[in-house]
Amino acid sequence: MYILAYKDGHDPAACLMKDGEIVAAVEEERFSRVKHAPSQFPKESIAFCLRQAGITQEEVDYVVYARLTPLRTFAAVMLYYMRRPPRTILEARYALANLKLQVLGTLGQFRGRAGYQRIYPLFPKLPKVHTSFDHHLCHAASAYLLSPFEESLIITWDGKGEATSLSIGIGQGAGLSIKERRGIFDSLGLFYSAATKYLAFTPNDGEYKVMGLAPYGQRGVDVSDLIAPDERVGYRVNSDFVLYPLRGVEQNFERRFGPAAVRDMPISKEHQNFAWALQNALEQVGLSVAKMAQKKYPSKHLCLAGGVALNVKLNKVLRESGLFDDIFVQPAAGDNGLVLGAAALLYTKLTHKRPAPLTNLYLGPSYSDDEVAAVLREEGIVFHKSSDVIGETATLIKKGNVVAWFQGRMEFGPRSLGARSVLAHPGLAGMRDRINEKIKFREEFRPFCPSILAEHANELLGRAAPSPFMVLSFEATPVAKRLVPAVVHVDNTVRPQTVARDDSRYRALLERFYQETGVPALLNTSLNIRGEPIVENPHHVVEFFRKTHIDAIVVGDSIALRTDQSSQFSQTLNRGTLVTEY
């Protein structure tokens, strides 16, 4: 049985489930090259899923839309405002603007022009859309139904989906139910996004930058009148600082905390302190919600999804709280991951069984060595086919080179996990600054993550636990600070990918690098530059090679070194001498 799930809007994506197992999943941004691909229909994503499985449109059994249709969304939003009428001028302005959008969306549906309806002319031989599911129900299903737990408490939190910004649910066997919801005016995600904008980062994209900036600040800014824990309902938040699309919210932040930060300008100590206060408040509020939920719906496990679940510092607090024996964070926790939940929900509804747990995110496109070589020749790149890709790459990195590593099927979700990665030696002084400045072209305060041989995790991580998807954070041990300083953040934390024993090429590279250096980890960051999606195909790798100061690209069995390219190619980057002897 094949189930195709898709969504449009923010972070459009598609996935294909075969007999309860996700066999393909990809985000539209990887094809369109527009980050988050706002308002784009996932045409290429759907086409890839069918192509990857080798099936025709007619062979798909069910199609599911991973959010409510416009008419049902309008009903959910209207019901919310009836139950929780606006209490301030800002809330009223937001509600009116939101309802206008819902009316326009509903009219579009009646006219056959709603976003989800674009699938019919583009893929006319697919079955008619079987059903659609509530946004936070999809989040909850992606977290619980794809987890390894037989029972669990479930918390989903984000900006908003339909009229919900936070849900609390329980899972038992193949059953899942949402017990409580918080609405738009109480949104933790929107509050964090509004603060993100105040700090001159882009909402719905730059929140992780705020999380990375926060450790550079210190206690001194009080936000307790805006957001604070509450034992009875989990938390309270001032909606005058939540509804960030409205100009009045920006003015409220400036009146309360002073002038907003300016994009691409040095970040003041005051703004660093504000980031610290914001992150600390989120952690305390998140913990309060978990305590309240655990008290009402006891469980040994916790499953998380929604954009807020990508905040690894919050996840660290929850994991170390002692409230739960184990937690599972759905790694594509943002809106792209809704397709996973929708497919899981429909499969469970049809079969009364749970789908297979999510243990693999290498669900995207791949390219053969012949395809890679043809692209490199077409692009005029000087390269050689290696008979020992693992050994040559390990030696390059050992010598201090930064390598673009493009292997196998692309990852689904926001993290590069060794298929579309930039790799470097985590123990070399200055490596973090070099990559931020010369390769990623991003803010200097941004930290990097390590990929660690799983059997060595206890040496580098305090209270170590499996972390295959980079969604958890740990204290760095003294060994880590000495051995891999380039991946230890200023607050002495590490966000790792632990790589278990398998037959993957990436695991083999980690093992070889450890043999040569005694360092059981690599610095691993996404294969993209600031503002662009992660690369998808070999053409994108070549473009990355030309735009950045990367020392080498390793694409399948093909290796290209910058020093082997034409002088004109090198001079366009005003590059200095490279270490490429090996």
UniProtKB/TrEMBL annotation:
<dbReference type="GO" id="GO:0003824">
    <property type="term" value="F:catalytic activity"/>
</dbReference>
<dbReference type="InterPro" id="IPR043129">
    <property type="entry name" value="ATPase_NBD"/>
</dbReference>
<dbReference type="Pfam" id="PF02543">
    <property type="entry name" value="Carbam_trans_N"/>
</dbReference>
<protein>
    <recommendedName>
        <fullName>Carbamoyltransferase</fullName>
    </recommendedName>
</protein>
<dbReference type="InterPro" id="IPR038152">
    <property type="entry name" value="Carbam_trans_C_sf"/>
</dbReference>
<comment type="similarity">
    <text>Belongs to the NodU/CmcH family.</text>
</comment>
<dbReference type="InterPro" id="IPR003696">
    <property type="entry name" value="Carbtransf_dom"/>
</dbReference>
<dbReference type="InterPro" id="IPR031730">
    <property type="entry name" value="Carbam_trans_C"/>
</dbReference>
<dbReference type="InterPro" id="IPR051338">
    <property type="entry name" value="NodU/CmcH_Carbamoyltrnsfr"/>
</dbReference>
<feature type="domain" description="Carbamoyltransferase">
    <location>
        <begin position="10"/>
        <end position="343"/>
    </location>
</feature>
<feature type="domain" description="Carbamoyltransferase C-terminal">
    <location>
        <begin position="394"/>
        <end position="559"/>
    </location>
</feature>
<dbReference type="Pfam" id="PF16861">
    <property type="entry name" value="Carbam_trans_C"/>
</dbReference>
